[in-house]
Amino acid sequence: MHEQPYRQNPLLRMSYSLIAPLYDIIIERPMREARRRSLASLPTDVPKKVLISGVGTGLDLPHLPTLHHYTALDFNPAMLSRAKVRKEKLDVEFILGDSMDLPFADAQFDYVVLHLIVAVVPEPQKCLSEAARVLKPGGTILLFDKFLHPHQGAPLRRLFNIITRRMATRMDVVFEEVLCAAPELKISSDVPLLSGGWFRGILLQKR
């Protein structure tokens, strides 16, 4: 069996296990409205199969429509155990797995939610291309994350990235470069959500 990509960064795995109890306190309130705006793109009339790739502690779950079947995946057992508490009335299956090497066959999901995961994983291109692979033709990816714009200097973010990329998140990811890894995807919407447009809400459609 080949080694899953996330296992190549044991420090990242350990750090997320340690910060799991604090993650909600730090992240939940500042990101709440942005999550709601992104998840509002899920349909509320027809049941669909939805993958939440990188569910973390499940902060998306309270904002999800109850009619869909959800698959919630994360690489960290501590995060996943906290997400399970937020299940409530949702039809959701929790899976321990890698967003860069999804354990699903091609074209399985109508929607894929990528919230604060593409800029966290060591290889963002693999994360997006895997999401595209398991998405049905005509399906949609809901992406919410922080990205630099092409040719943006951002020297402080790039400096801090030397430290943060090993322990928590990357700060140097340019979305337009990541998108090249999934040519079957096209942008249908791209709006600023937080921090002057550093955090963006992006909808992608699979041709």
Outline of this structure?
A hairpin with a 4-residue loop joins β6 (185-194) and β7. The chain has a seven-stranded mixed beta sheet.
Question: What is the fold's blueprint, element by element?
Answer:
Layout: H1 10-39, E1 49-53, E2 69-74, H2 77-85, E3 91-96, E4 109-115, H3 124-134, E5 135-146, H4 155-167, H5 175-179, E6 185-194, E7 199-206
Parallel strand pairs: 1-2, 1-4, 2-3, 4-5
Antiparallel strand pairs: 5-7, 6-7
What does this structure look like?
The protein has five helices and seven strands. It is globular. About 40% of the residues are buried. It has one domain: 3-Layer(aba) Sandwich (Rossmann fold). It is about 35% helix and about 25% strand. It has about 210 residues and is α/β, with parallel strands linked by helices. A seven-stranded mixed sheet has the order 3-2-1-4-5-7-6.
Count of structural domains: 1
Strand content: 25-35%
Would you list the SSEs in sequence order as H and E?
HEEHEEHEHHEE
Distance between the termini: 32 Å
Q: Specify the overall morphology.
A: globular
According to DSSP, the number of beta strands is: 7
Q: Return Rg in Å.
A: 16 Å
At CATH level 3, the topology is Rossmann fold
In quaternary terms, these chains amount to single chain
Uncertain stretches of 5 or more adjacent residues: none
Assign the CATH superfamily: Vaccinia Virus protein VP39
**Quick one: biggest sheet?**
7 strands, mixed
Rounded mean pLDDT score: 86
